[in-house]
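Workshop exercise sheet. Pairs work together: one partner reads the sequence aloud, the other fills in the structure field after running the prediction. Swap roles for the next sheet.
Pair: D.N. / O.F.
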Amino acid sequence: MQNFLKDIVSPSSRKWVYGVYSLIGLTLGCVQAGLGAVNAGTPDWLKICTAVYAFFGTAIGATAASNVITTPASPPPPSSPPPPSSPSSTLKAP
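Structure field:
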């Protein structure tokens, strides 16, 4: 997926957007959980904010996914053979 914002929005700006988006989601979730814990019901403003947040997440996710750099996996390094056992460990004392 090619990101058309790649050259417009700098990586550091995108990092801030992702961070702020995460904090907003955390805040909305905490408020909703707190109200639910005391059976206060969910106010309309919270329902609206949560719905808009979820819808906006599609754009955030698409932007994040398009910035993932994929490189072929490198093969694992060859394993070295175990060290030979020392001859003294195989000899029995007289």
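Discussion prompt: The chain has a mean pLDDT of 79. What would you look at next?
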